[in-house]
Design goal:
single chain, alpha+beta, UbiD C-terminal domain-like, 2 domains, seven-stranded antiparallel sheet, 13 helices, 25 strands, 29% helix, 22% strand, globular
């Protein structure tokens, strides 16, 4: 059964020896970052700091920071189980004829389970504080790195509505704390929240209602980071992943719903015409993103559970917790990509590429220029458009082994012939780009070249021993003592 809240997930982590409680006094000013960074780099456990800044509120971090913990969060033995379920639904076809329609009724009924359910009250509103009754400084919000512009909320579920359709959106955008009741809202230009914000600004609209949930059950938190299409409600997808509808409750001061079991909720608004300098911030690239003007979030009310737990994360040079979230996203969304492009065999975004710098793709090559077709297709897909370098290899290359890819690619390419450059949108956090959000991208065709691609020479075979010799050595192997 799906976790009811974050606390059930914490119990599961403890049961599987994936969590370490820390009672030693620590500071939210860089100390938690330094400890967590060391733990992340050696593949350590989730951490629950129980004595932060005087011990008023515990801090949970690195909760999703390994393959095993991502699988526990999604309640599966392997991430591939989720991909298989998604593939099954993607293969759902409109039934033809009365008999087929009758047979599909159970499937359609099951689909109805995945819609969030609104409830009248929730544990996230056990304590209610209105203007003048709260301070953001009451929460152990981290200052992560030395040159950060301040304290940042790093794992928020930011809820908005599309101003044209009214549909809900949930995204994850860092929030710099400016004072007791205002923060930045780091809506990068390509994000859905930013699109809603621009729409409101262009229409000269008034305040834009926003709610921020912190510390939801793990699948709900994970869903906020998913690169879903615009107007596909992340809460519906989260309900699909957990196979149980998420309970949502309406905020007390704004017309927005939030997960009823969340630990903390910040309610308020963004004025579309207001900007304030935000940053610098030590980002997942391993470098600081510089100061830039961003929208401002005004908090008008705070609600939370009794004795809330503050969940957060840090980002920086990989591996970090966000790497494992990114890995899970890649494995879960691969079926969607393969449905659009059946020739794709597998895909890998190595941690060192920090999601948008390097993608390794293997394909069943079927015609001249096929690798370039896949490159251009990927650059036309949602957030995949930010991929700085795409390397395409043949289907027999294991893209989950970067060493094999490097070996094959460097042997297979003629640089002038096989590398192409294109201009287009790049990640806003790419500090090497010539302009913010705009620059060049590189595609590498590392497939074996065909005569029909202008390669007149004979392509060589890989070194190998015969199958007969392998069989003989297999029989002798244990006796060799090697």
């Amino acid at each position: 059964m799906a976790y009811e809240d974050l606390r059930e997930f914490i119990k599961a982590l403890e049961k599987h020896e994936e969590l370490k409680r820390i009672s030693l006094p620590v500071s939210s000013d860089q100390e938690i970052t330094e400890i967590t960074d060391r733990v992340s780099k050696r593949g350590g456990p989730a951490l629950l700091f129980e004595n932060v800044d005087g011990g008023q509120m515990p801090v949970l971090i690195n909760a999703l920071g390994s393959r095993r913990r991502m699988e526990l969060a999604l309640e599966v033995g392997s991430i591939d189980e989720v991909a298989e379920r998604l593939t099954e639904w993607l293969d759902f076809k409109s039934p033809q004829g009365l008999l087929e329609k009758v047979k599909m009724l159970p499937k359609l009924a099951e689909l109805g389970k995945y819609f969030p359910r609104e409830v009248k009250s929730g544990r996230c509103q056990e304590v209610v504080k209105r203007e003048g009754e709260f301070s953001l400084f009451d929460f152990p919000i981290l200052k992560c790195w030395e040159a950060d512009g301040g304290r940042f909320i790093t794992l928020p579920l930011v809820f908005t509505r599309n101003p044209r359709t009214g549909k809900r959106n949930c995204g994850m955008y860092r929030m710099q704390v400016y004072d007791e009741q205002t923060t930045g809202m780091h809506w990068q230009i390509h994000k859905h929240g930013a699109a809603h914000h621009r729409d409101e600004e262009q229409r000269g609209a008034g305040r834009m209602a926003v709610a921020v949930a912190i510390g939801a059950e793990p699948i709900t938190t994970f869903a906020a980071a998913l690169p879903l299409p615009d107007d596909l409600d992340e809460m519906i997808f989260a309900s699909f992943l957990r196979q149980k509808p998420i309970e949502m409750v309406k905020c007390i001061s704004v017309d927005v719903e939030v997960p009823a079991s969340a630990e903390i909720v910040l309610e308020g608004y963004v004025d579309p015409a207001e900007r304030r300098m935000e940053g610098p911030f030590g980002d997942h690239t391993g470098f600081y993103t510089l100061e830039e003007p961003y929208p401002v979030f005004h908090v008008t009310a705070v609600t939370h559970r009794k004795h809330p737990i503050y969940q957060t994360t840090i980002v920086g040079r990989p591996p970090m917790e966000d790497c494992w979230m990114g890995w899970a996203i890649t494995r879960i969304t691969l079926p969607v990509l393969k449905r659009q492009f059946p020739e794709i065999v597998d895909m890998n975004l190595p941690f060192e590429g920090i999601f948008h710098n390097l993608m390794l793709v293997s394909i069943r090559k079927q015609y001249p220029g096929h690798a370039r077709k896949i490159m251009n297709a990927i650059w036309g897909l949602g957030q995949a458009m930010f991929t700085k370098c795409i390397v395409v290899v043949d289907e027999d290359v294991n893209v989950q082994d970067p060493a094999e890819v490097v070996w094959k690619a460097l042997n297979n390419i003629d640089p002038e012939r096989d590398i192409q450059f294109v201009m287009g949108p790049v990640d806003v956090l790419d500090h090497a780009a010539r302009l913010t959000g705009y620059g060049s991208k590189m595609g590498v065709d590392a497939t074996r070249k065909w005569k029909s691609e202008g390669f007149e020479r004979r392509w060589p075979r890989e070194n190998r021993t015969s199958d007969e010799v392998k069989r003989i050595v297999d029989e002798k192997w244990k006796k060799l003592g090697l």
